[in-house]
Write a structure and sequence with these properties.
By secondary structure, the chain is α/β, with parallel strands linked by helices. Helices cover about 40% and strands about 15% of the residues. The strands form six sheets. Strands 1, 2, 5, 6, 7, 8, 9, 10, 13 and 14 form a ten-stranded mixed β-sheet that branches. It has a six-stranded parallel β-sheet with strand order 17-16-15-18-19-20, sandwiched between helices. Strands 21-22-26-25 form a four-stranded antiparallel β-sheet, with no helix packed on it. A hairpin with a 2-residue loop joins strand 7 and strand 8. Phosphorylase is an important allosteric enzyme in carbohydrate metabolism. Enzymes from different sources differ in their regulatory mechanisms and in their natural substrates. However, all known phosphorylases share catalytic and structural properties.
Length: about 850
């Protein structure tokens, strides 16, 4: 008989053990080994069999064992200390209060997925893991963050393989009652009504969602759940699966995340007294509708016009883009947006045509029939960033159509390189090595000095530690491979070979990530015979463990997995190369420490950041990677090896061949010889030390979150305050922008000239520059006249221009003005300059914000025959 409903029954803990409930209900246990030790002490065997899930542990531990623990004074003392430590962690002042000075009251951080722990399966890959690490690092630094996401009843899929090696997907039911989360209730009583949010949909339908709260250290994570009574069957299914369903289904998820998420934050702050957010941070475009909801709040609640409300919302919004390719951006048919934001559905106060403008691809090459979520995110946020320096360059080029009057270097998208939460990902044994003889809190992993203890350990200690971690990873892999083959239809009798796969004394390489085509899972298979020779080398063998999921609709990705699995199934080499299905946090945590080398070979420049190599590096693994994402930024030959990129070769097969053979050469001639150089390879360990000590502090998520606070959150909070105080500033800014846009066609740069250049320009010379500009209906206070100068390329493009503002020297009739300044010839070789006029206002975060710039007229234009637009010498 099939149950019509299921739920989990939690145990009633003896009064002496209520502290266990306190520990379970704060996900800090997911990255705090001492708390995990307390759970393990409850029942070691059960802790292991439940996969380290404390909710399952307490649900299955016998009542007699709980009674025994309630009278175990040693255990009770240990429990008391763990609870006291947690209380101190969530209440004591940390970096944000002591060093940063609490510059922001609160930040709301929106993401479609969060990877906190394998026990809470609400993530698919890097975006979710990054979001989870962001919350954890914010907690460690005591940054007042509120996370906002969705609770998917089936999460992302669980992966298995069939006999032919084809990826199979299944969607296990996620029971909220069996998770370390709780419903937000409108009152302190346990029977108080759950707090809900409601969205009106086309056709007078209602979408209701309840709010689950996961406590991530100091940070609450709000997750909206539509599977509740009061919704019709279709609406109950809105939060069924992560990244699943039809186009309209995805739109409903993103409406609930953005619009419903803002309403959930308001409810949470009302009920708990948490400070209302000054800053709203949207992690990718999926949550972009939060900006529309904030405009609606201001338009209906404060009676602001759309333009004024837009400025208020923009001032406090940060947008992070993670994709390096347009195909990775969500785009919806315009008709769907019109339906869901019509006055009947979304209400009055926000004209649907203005909403459509925000997501319109109204630039060269854009599609007028779609609504682009990333474009909307950029237009609704005054500050935006990519997730590595190279990705910032890629993003500025990819979105340059929004700022057609500016070069890509001027596009107002900065970059903050991702980081990883070391307490989550670093093996306890590595932690003990790096923190030896220091007083640093292991939970913080913050600051350059924490790695100094590594110098106090011997090479032999480090080498033995890595072997222990390699063996642990191999044991875990053998268990997973055996189960995978059983799922594929094998019998126990034919799986004796699994006990001998991999070897703890063999150079171990890891490759694990999502499986889109650009990450090139099968690049290593370009020359199968050469790869086999590396795997089976008699003196310097290599073993490779591979994992990764293809999106359920990505047939090409599934074919890549199948190709890899079939290669690894070969009895000749299956002890040296394995594919492990169902890549998730539980698989990753032993994998990073157990590898000696982390392999990454994407098509440059399509890897936005790629944090798996960071996690491996913190565990003493060396990177072997194409210089893409973060590795391009921080590569050092003491941290590993750079695979030469054949970027620019249009023949993809030839490019893959070249890069694959470069990979083989590196493994054969550099990586393997160094690893096998003696019983304790001193040069290898020297690189390992250097990686942990020098690269380690750079890749920490605490560094990343500090960068967000200082470079984006604080300026956004300041803008938010200035525009929210009386709204007069926002009204003035909106009116000023309208005036500038209307008058900009009248702006002219009539004449540019240099003074004192001489016949032979010499390095170090100061040259006077002056220009005449007509401003039409604008005032000098409305604009800035800039000179841009620097080295020029063969196309007369100024590379890495230096900018300086010219000063107003004289005013003439007709609103014409002369501007003057000085230009220093600070470099030899081809040197060029030009002049431009840009809008200027204290409320702008960037001169490019309006996308308006005016330069000199074309040199061929007879109206300005006396001097070229700019000059080169």
């Amino acid at each position: 008989m099939r149950a019509i409903r299921r739920f989990s029954v939690r145990p009633v803990l003896p009064e002496q053990l209520t502290g266990l409930g306190t520990l379970v209900n704060n996900l800090r246990w997911a990255w705090h080994p001492e708390t995990q030790d307390v759970f393990e002490a409850v029942d070691p065997q059960l802790w292991r069999s439940t996969g380290g899930d404390p909710v399952k542990l307490l649900g299955e531990v016998p009542a007699a064992r709980l009674d025994e623990l309630a009278n175990d004074q040693a255990f009770l003392r240990r429990l008391e200390l763990a609870v006291a430590d947690l209380n101190g962690y969530v209440s004591d002042d940390r970096w944000f209060q002591t060093d940063a000075g609490s510059p922001v009251s609160s930040v709301a951080y929106f993401s479609p997925e969060f990877g906190i722990t394998h026990v809470l399966p609400q993530y698919s890959g890097g975006l979710g893991i990054l979001a989870g690490d962001h919350l954890k690092a914010a907690s460690d630094l005591a940054v007042p963050l509120i996370g906002v996401g969705l609770l998917y009843r089936h999460g992302y899929f669980a992966q298995s393989l069939n006999r032919e090696g084809w990826q199979q997907e299944r969607y296990p039911l996620v029971d909220p009652d069996g998770l370390p989360i709780s419903l937000l209730r409108d009152g302190a009583e346990s029977n108080a009504e759950p707090a809900t949010v409601t969205l009106t949909l086309p056709g007078n339908r209602q979408l209701h969602a309840q709010i689950w709260v996961a406590q991530v250290g100091r940070v609450p994570l709000l997750m909206l759940d539509s599977d509740m009574e009061g919704n019709e069957p279709a609406e109950r299914e809105v939060t069924d699966r992560l990244y699943g369903g039809s186009t309209e289904h995805r739109l409903l998820q993103e409406l609930l995340l953005g619009v419903g998420g803002v309403r959930a934050v308001r409810e949470y702050c009302r009920i708990t007294g948490h400070p209302a957010p000054e800053v709203f941070h949207t992690n990718e475009g999926h949550a972009g509708f939060l900006g529309i909801e904030r405009i609606r709040e201001l338009a209906t609640g404060q009676d602001l016009d759309f333009d004024t409300a837009l400025e208020v919302a923009r001032g406090g919004t940060v947008f992070t883009t993670h994709t390096p390719v347009p195909a990775g951006i969500d785009r919806f048919p315009v008709e769907l947006i019109q339906q869901h934001f019509s006055p009947d559905a979304f209400g009055e106060g926000v004209p649907v045509d203005r909403i459509l403008e925000l997501g319109a691809e109204d630039f060269e090459g854009g599609d007028p029939g779609v609504f682009n979520m990333a474009i909307m995110g950029l237009r609704l946020a005054q500050r935006a960033n990519g997730v590595s320096k190279l990705h910032g360059v890629v993003s500025r080029g990819m979105f340059s159509g929004l700022w057609p009057s500016f070069d890509a270097t001027d596009v107002p998208i900065t970059s903050i390189t991702n980081g990883v939460h070391a307490p989550t990902w670093v093996a306890r044994e590595i932690n003990d090595l790096t923190l030896a003889a220091t007083d640093t809190d292991a939970a913080s992993f913050d600051g350059d000095g924490i790695f100094a203890g590594l110098d106090k350990t011997t090479d032999a200690q480090i080498w033995e530690t890595k072997r222990i971690l390699r063996q642990r990873f191999i044991d875990d892999t053998r268990t997973r491979v055996r189960q995978s083959w059983l799922n594929r239809g094998a019998s126990e009798a034919e799986l004796g070979w699994v006990d001998s796969i991999l070897d703890p004394d063999v150079l171990t390489m890891g490759f694990a990530r999502r499986v889109p085509s650009y990450k090139r899972l099968t690049l290593m298979l370009r020359d199968p015979a050469r790869l086999k020779a590396l795997l089976l080398h008699p003196q310097r063998p290599v073993q490779i463990v591979i994992a990764g999921k293809a999106h359920p609709h990505d047939e090409g990705g599934k074919k890549l997995i199948q190709e890899m699995v079939r290669f690894a199934d070969d009895p000749e080499i299956r002890h040296r190369i394995v594919f492990v299905p169902d890549y998730d946090i539980a698989l990753a945590q032993p994998m990073y420490p157990g590898c000696d080398v982390w392999l990454n070979n994407p098509l440059r420049p399509y890897e936005a950041c790629g944090t798996s190599g960071m996690k491996a590096a913190l565990n003493g693994a060396l990177n072997l990677s194409i210089r893409d994402g973060w590795w391009d930024e921080w590569y050092d030959d003491e941290f590993g090896w750079a695979i030469p990129s054949a970027e620019g070769i249009e023949d993809t097969d030839r490019r893959d061949d070249l890069e694959a053979h470069a990979l083989y050469d590196l493994i054969e001639k550099q990586v393997a010889p160094r690893f096998y150089d003696g019983d304790v390879p001193g040069r290898w360990i020297e690189m390992l030390r250097h990686t942990i000590k020098e690269l380690g502090p750079k890749v920490l998520a605490t560094r990343m979150v500090r960068d967000y606070v200082e470079r984006l959150y604080v300026p956004a909070a300041q803008s938010s305050r200035s525009l929210n105080s009386t709204y007069d500033g926002a009204r003035e800014l909106a009116a000023w922008k309208k005036k500038v846009r209307a008058a900009w066609s009248q702006i002219r740069v009539d004449h540019v000239e240099l003074q004192g250049l001489g016949d032979i320009p010499q390095l170090g010379t100061n040259v006077g520059i002056r220009t005449f500009a007509a401003l039409g209906d604008l005032r000098p206070d409305d604009i800035d006249v800039e000179v841009l100068h620097g080295r020029v390329d063969s196309n007369d493009e100024i590379t890495d221009p230096v900018r300086a503002s010219l000063s107003l020297a004289e005013t003439y009739e007709g609103n014409r003005h002369r501007y003057e300044g000085e230009l220093k010839l600070d470099r030899t070789g081809p040197f060029g300059y030009t002049v431009r006029v840009v809008p200027k206002h204290a409320g702008l975060a960037s001169p490019a914000e309006l996308g308006l710039a005016a330069g000199p007229s074309d040199p061929e234009d007879p109206s300005t025959p006396d001097l070229p637009a700019g000059s080169e010498f």
